[in-house]
Amino acid sequence: MTGYVDIIHDVLIIGGGHAGLSAALTTYRALLKTVVFDTNQPRNLWNTEIHLTPTWDSKSPSDNRNAAREEIAKTGFVQFVDRAVTSADILDDGLFRVLDATDGLASAKMAAGLADDGHRFTDKFTIYTNANPVLAAELHSLVSAHGIKVDDRAILRLRADEEKEGVSIDFVDKTSSFERFLVHRPSTWNTSPLVKQLGLRMTPMGDIETSMPFCQTSVAGVFAAGDCASMMKIIPQAVSMGAYAGCGIARELPRRITGNACV
Predict the structure, then answer these.
(1) Residue 1 has pLDDT above 50, yes or no
(2) What are phi and psi of 88, to 5 degrees?
(3) Where residue 243 falls among pLDDT bands split at 50, 70, 90?
């Protein structure tokens, strides 16, 4: 699809992972002509086994996606385009236009939750906030009663300590501490330019903000499902969200055509 072409589909799905495939299967059931743009670079590309998915447990994620694509393609309602979408915008008539590649944890509650999980396995547990006094104060009020320590010293570096079989933490003030293991939940962000182009709101965790149950984003007519819109980045969650997003699309599209608002 080079340039501004006149091919119009009922539904555009960007991403052919488990959520996108689930959404496509759902829109097909609603008899909606759908196109799926897919770079074949899913987040779990390097994973060798699926888990938590009935009949596919311990099997290859890529085999699962390929089987699903073959099944969906046979419906005649879904077209797959193996190229990345490089831009997207909303036209004056409310339609969405996309061009493909051929065209030019800083959360106290999250940290406290991780600490609570880890504290079940050890009596000694410390949360390092790395010179963030506001976060440290909020965490202290949440976890101090449970015997969990909060350390706000600025971290200089981490060193693998093979002799002690753990990790040494060196601080800017030239002190250090030792831990048997560390848990880190880094901040994430969506690398797709479409988020900014469409003006989608994001969550503090770096995911696309959606409303439940149908995964509607902050922009009318745009739905997001799977890893890009969920803290739980696992296949069952993606499949579930994809199905809900597909239902939301099938529910909204006739109303966009007739002008009757969803209730």
Answers:
(1) no
(2) -150, 140
(3) very high
- The amino acid at residue 186 is P
Q: Is the peptide bond before 213 cis (omega within 30 degrees of 0)?
A: yes
pLDDT in tens, 97-124: 887 765 434 467 777 777 777 777 777 8
Rounded-to-integer distance, Cα 106 and Cα 112, Å: 11
- CA gap 18, 33 in Å, rounded: 19
> Rounded to two decimals, what is the model's pTM?
0.61
Nearest in space to 78 (alpha carbons), one of 20, 2, 39? 20
* pLDDT for residue 3: 39
Give the per-residue SS3 of the chain: CCCCCCCCCCEEEECCCHHHHHHHHHHHHCCCCEEEECCCCCCCCCCCCCCCCCCCCCCCHHHHHHHHHHHHHCCCCEEEECCCEEEEEECCCCCEEEEECCCCCCCHHHHHHHHHHHHCCCCCCEEECCCCHHHHHHHHHHHHHHCCEEECCCEEEEEEECCCCEEEEEECCCCEEEECCCCCCCCCCCCCCHHHHHCCCECCCCCECCECCCCECCCCCCECCCHHHCCCCCHHHHHHHHHHHHHHHHHHHHHHHHCCCCC
- The yes-or-no verdict on residue 145 having pLDDT over 90 is no
How does pLDDT run across 68-82, given as a tens digit for each residue? 999 999 998 998 888
